[in-house]
Structure formats: C-alpha cells, structure tokens
Amino acid sequence: MNLKQHLRENIIKNILIVVFALFFYPFLKSSLDEISLDQTGNFLLVISMFLVTVCFANFEFTYEKSQLNHRLGKWLATGSTAIFMFLIALLLETIILIIKLIYPSFFGLFFGFSILLYGGIVIYDFWDLIRTEHR
C-alpha cells in the first residue's frame, strides 16, 4: 500500500467535500426559509435521525477491511467515505441553519460544535486510513 498516495487522495477528497458542502449552503438556506417555525422541531428530529444513521455508517466502515491495493476496492472505499462525509456535512449545515432560525443567540455555539464534530470525523477518517498501514 502506498500510504503517501492514499493520504494525498484523502486530502483532496476532504477538501472537495467541504467545497461542495459550502456550494450547497445557499440552496439549503433558501429551502429552509420556507419552513414555518412550528415545523422546525419535527424537522430537526428527522435531520438528527439522518445524521445519527450516516454517522453510524461512516464509523462502521473501515479502510482495514477494504482492498486499497486494488483500484476497485480503493474507489469503493473512497466513494463510500466521501458520500458519508458529504451527507454529514450537509446535515450539519442544515442543523446549523435551523438553529440560526430558531435560536439565533446559540448560532455561534452550535456552529463551533459542528466544526469540532466534523473536524473529528475528518481526523478519524485519516486515522483509519493510516492504521491500515500497520495491519
């Protein structure tokens, strides 16, 4: 396994995820502007359930069980983690936008929590990739 190459590809993947998630921000914001305040609680519940599900899928996946030395195995691993992490980013964006709508005074706090959570997920992704070198 060429760890340097995999790490380089992982950096590119994670940068692209953040760029695409930021691209979707205005679309998410305009969609959420149509939700009435009395519906936001139920909507947050549904978004939270999606977030828990995709986080579980992301943490259940491991590069150790992937065949990173084969092109198909590498693309499947990269593709699945990219989808999971992109969904996590979009769902966190959605939650932050709803919190900004309902509780504007807590926006900064929850924005910080979301950055830390997503940063931890990115670090986990790199850690999981690096530990495959030692198996």
UniProtKB/TrEMBL annotation:
- TM ranges: 12-28, 43-63, 75-99, 105-127
Query: Its domain of life?
Result: Bacteria
Q: Which keywords, in A-to-Z order, does the entry hold?
A: Membrane, Transmembrane, Transmembrane helix
Indicate what this protein is called per its UniProt record. Uncharacterized protein
